[in-house]
Structures are given as C-alpha cells and as structure tokens.
Amino acid sequence: MKKIFALVLVLVICLSLAACGAKGPTLADVQKAGKLTVATSPDFPPFESLEGGKVVGIEVDILELVAQELGVELEIVQMDFDSVLVGIQTAKYDCGMSGITANEDRKKNMLFTDPYYNAAQVIVVKEGSSITGKADLADKTVSVQTGTTAETGCQDEKIKYQAYNANADAMSALTTGKVDAWVVDNLTAIQMTADAEGLVILEENMTEEPYAFAFAFGSEDLVAEISKIVNKLIEDGTVQKIFDNYGETYIKP
User: Fold this and answer.
1) Given this model, what pLDDT does residue 249 score?
2) Which of these, 243, 206, 213, lies nearest to 229 by C-alpha position?
3) Reported pTM
C-alpha cells in the first residue's frame, strides 16, 4: 500500500509540475497555427448551446468576430465546465468561454480579457416556495453547475448545495424536488425556464459578476490584442447588437 501511495504521489507531483510549466500561446503562435482553439461547455444559453450539433450563442458570435480580426479560424471543443477551466490552466486550449466570471480567485490561475458583460447569478424556485431571497437559503439545499461561481457563491455563503455537470441536470433537480432552489446565470435562467411551468426567478440576485474570456499564463500579448478587439466591438455597438439578436438585455461592464 505504501509503494502504491508513493507512486501515486510521484505521479501527482509530476502532473502538477507539468501543469505549472505549461504556457499559453502567444499572438504569433495563434496566427501561425491559423486558428484559435476555444474550450466551452455548450449548456449555457444564450451564451453557448447546441443547435443541430453545432455550438451557437452570444460568446460564439463575439469570438467569431475576434477570430476574423486576428485572421484565423475559430475552432470550438466541447466539454464539461470544470474541464474548461482545467484545460485553460494547463494550456491545453487557447481560450475558454462559458460565461466565465473573471474573479480574483480565478485570476490567480489564469488570464482574462477585459470583461464584455456584467452578469448576475439568480435564484430559481418552484411556485409557492417559502424562499423569497438569499437569506431564506440558510437551511435549504441548492443545485448548481460544477465549477461555476454559483457553486463558489454557495460555498462562500455556507449554503448547502448539490453540484451537477450540466445546468439541465441542476434544473431537473429542482423540478423533481431533490433540491429547494437552483442558482444560475440570469440570462440562462430566463431561457431555460421559459418553457418550464411552475418555476420562478427571484428578484434578489445571488451575486453580480463580470464575464470575460479566459487564457493560460504566457498568452499576455494575445489577451491584450483580444481585449482591444472586444472593447472596440463594445464601443461600436456590435456586442449590443449581438445581444439584441438573441432578444437579451445587454449590461455593459
């Protein structure tokens, strides 16, 4: 048993060192490759979702324009949300998009572009629920998507929660009575509950947070260039139009 433990420990250390040594691509690297490889979890409408097997959404539209400005193709790779974050930290992918909040904890492990949108995490409950705000969650159980700020928000507030790989499963946990509430991004909540009877989005937000695109350390010049492009798209009204196309309210960061 000790030998097995020692071998596992060595393997973990080696993987950790490999991850620490990983560097993200530079602007020149991406342009030479001719593509920007983006990791995403396409279960976060209207930012990312699957339509006929293709990933579509607000962030896809923004990064398509970014890729055009860089003179490269956009390549999208699908996975669970927590795998997106790991894939970026280890520089397995060039960029991460999945409604990623650029908070201080994440900035310790990865780079972010300037924010393009101010989001909020909201609380969804069943009609007739005794929960009317964040304070009522103290003795309740909440469903969240694994690795999201909904999860860390519950941890910070000491709220009991159950984490699921997909928001569809987190919503199902609420509708089937496995949990008392569901915490999720405001626009995603609006879209996913539109056709779901008996669910209510509370007025009080769980959190408010800026969304941005994530990159590994080492991609500083790439991040600076993409931030410049994103800010131009914000200032000339393009991002507003993209949100309008999806019938969503845009909140400028």
Assistant:
1) 87
2) 213
3) 0.76
CA distance 130 to 133: 9
| Cβ-contact 43, 78 below 8 angstroms | no
> How high is the pLDDT of residue 6?
40
**What would the mean pLDDT of 80-86 be, rounded to a whole number?**
94
Return d(Cα 18, Cα 155) in angstroms, integer: 29
Which range (1-5, 30-34, 67-71, 169-173) has the least confidence? 1-5
1, pLDDT greater than 50: no
Inter-CA distances, 146 with 6, 10, 12, 223, Å: 30, 28, 22, 26
Q: What is the mean pLDDT of residues 223-242?
A: 98
CATH numbers and ranges of domains, the chain: 20-118+211-245 (3.40.190.10), 119-209 (3.40.190.10)
What would the DSSP string read from start to end of 192-235?
HHTT-TTEEEEEEEEEEEEEEEEE-TT-HHHHHHHHHHHHHHHH
| Rounded Cα distance, 186 and 123, in Å | 9
Closest CA to 38 of 151, 46, 47: 47
Taking only the tens place, the pLDDT of each residue in 85-134 is 999 999 999 999 999 999 999 999 999 999 999 998 999 999 999 999 99
Residue 211 has, within 13 A of its CA and on its CB side, a CA count of: 25
CA 164 vs CA 27, 30, 41, 155, 222: distances in Å: 35, 33, 13, 15, 32
Token code pair at residue 180: 């008392």
Contact residues for 140 (Cβ-Cβ < 8 A; gap 6+)? 131, 159, 160, 179, 180, 181
